[in-house]
Amino acid sequence: MHEINFPAGETVVKTAKTYARDLLERVLATFLVAAAGVAVAAGPGDMFSASFWETVAAAGIAAAGSLLKGLFARVVGAKNSASTAPGV
Known about the structure:
This protein is an all-alpha fold and 88 residues long. It has one domain (10-76). Helices cover 66% and strands 0% of the residues. The protein contains 2 helices and no strands. It has helices spanning 9-41, 52-76. Helix 1 (9-41) runs antiparallel to helix 2.
């Protein structure tokens, strides 16, 4: 019979923690950059033309896209990274 070797439980937990921290950082950064982008795109004279909630909605859509991409990366890439780039 062939022996099956599973990774240690601690390794699995560390991998999940690393992935979750990586994904959270990417989603939050996307949200903040998208919100800033909406504010800058509105222009200095029109800084408040986009309402607060429109800005939050636009940033939320971008962050949701980042979240979906990160979840997809977990399936196709390294298990401890939210990146699809090899070696990240």
